Amino acid sequence: MDHFQDGHHVRLRSRVQRTYLHAAADGESVTLSQPRASMNAAWAVHIYDGGDGEGEGDGDGPYLLLHSAAYGRYLSATARPARRGHHGLRVELRDYDQPEVEAIRWRAIGSGFADDVVMLRHVGGSYLRANGKYLPWNSTGVSVDDKASSMMYWIVEPIPLREAGIPAIPGPLPTPLIDLSAIFTRRGAEREIRGVEPIPGEAAMPADHSPNRPIFSAIFSSRGRRIRFVLALEDGYYPEEVDADDWRQFWFRGRSAFSLRGNLAAHIDEDDPNIAMCVRAGRHGRLTPLVVNLPDGGYGGTLEIVVFLAGTPGYDALRYPDVDAQ
């Protein structure tokens, strides 16, 4: 696994399709896509040295784990059939929420071609593969399969670190409809903080499931998710258990990273540009700097964010892939 160095970033390009392994915009699917200069095409390397010797066919580590540089979630194989027209079993993104998660464990195997061409073998024995060799209309699918195919060959492209520090996050997303829900629904005290709302079902904002609830809220309000966040100390330390008193939470609507940063800054009484956001995909997931808009999926769920203050050693230690580098 010489091409995969812990903490570095890589792209994986299908040797046949010539397209890149992408974390899809829904934050769950994995696809093949042409764009190269994209955080969705960048994967952070996490080398896991654990293992109890009882794994199916592979024994002890080290194992290769890959998590998306866009959303932080890990590349995983599932036991569910692949989508129609694809071979084998489905591949998805998932959180690293337990100490031992076999679904996210891989090994890089030499292909016998060039040094930078590998096969990714899952701990269960199947291999990551592209789809659509003979069906161009079906060429964006990714799955795992145990039948040998040239679609299992991947070109590893290392991505250098960005020397200029944190990249600019996208600007505010347009609002297609005026949000009239504030007129017709109750809001808690936190409504005053840049659009942040209390969490439905909790004390400040009881969930309303009655047939007489205002319909305008559903029509004009974007979907939301729970944001659970903590402010890291200057050295980067933060309590890993989310039930610690330092972790707080609020309800956030929409996908805008720009708006989310503003909401977090308001909660900790800082200016927006003076913070960096890192998403943690599960209790054991590594931190991933959040510099893209939130996925268009996962609504109703929880997103864990660790906040770093500019000018601190913890902030300065964050690393970003230079996806624009040639």
Automatic annotation (TrEMBL):
<dbReference type="Pfam" id="PF04601">
    <property type="entry name" value="DUF569"/>
</dbReference>
<dbReference type="InterPro" id="IPR054726">
    <property type="entry name" value="Ubiq_DUF569-assoc"/>
</dbReference>
<dbReference type="InterPro" id="IPR008999">
    <property type="entry name" value="Actin-crosslinking"/>
</dbReference>
<protein>
    <recommendedName>
        <fullName>DUF569 domain-containing protein</fullName>
    </recommendedName>
</protein>
<feature type="domain" description="DUF569">
    <location>
        <begin position="224"/>
        <end position="308"/>
    </location>
</feature>
<dbReference type="Pfam" id="PF22932">
    <property type="entry name" value="Ubiq_DUF_assoc"/>
</dbReference>
<feature type="domain" description="DUF569">
    <location>
        <begin position="1"/>
        <end position="154"/>
    </location>
</feature>
<dbReference type="InterPro" id="IPR007679">
    <property type="entry name" value="DUF569"/>
</dbReference>
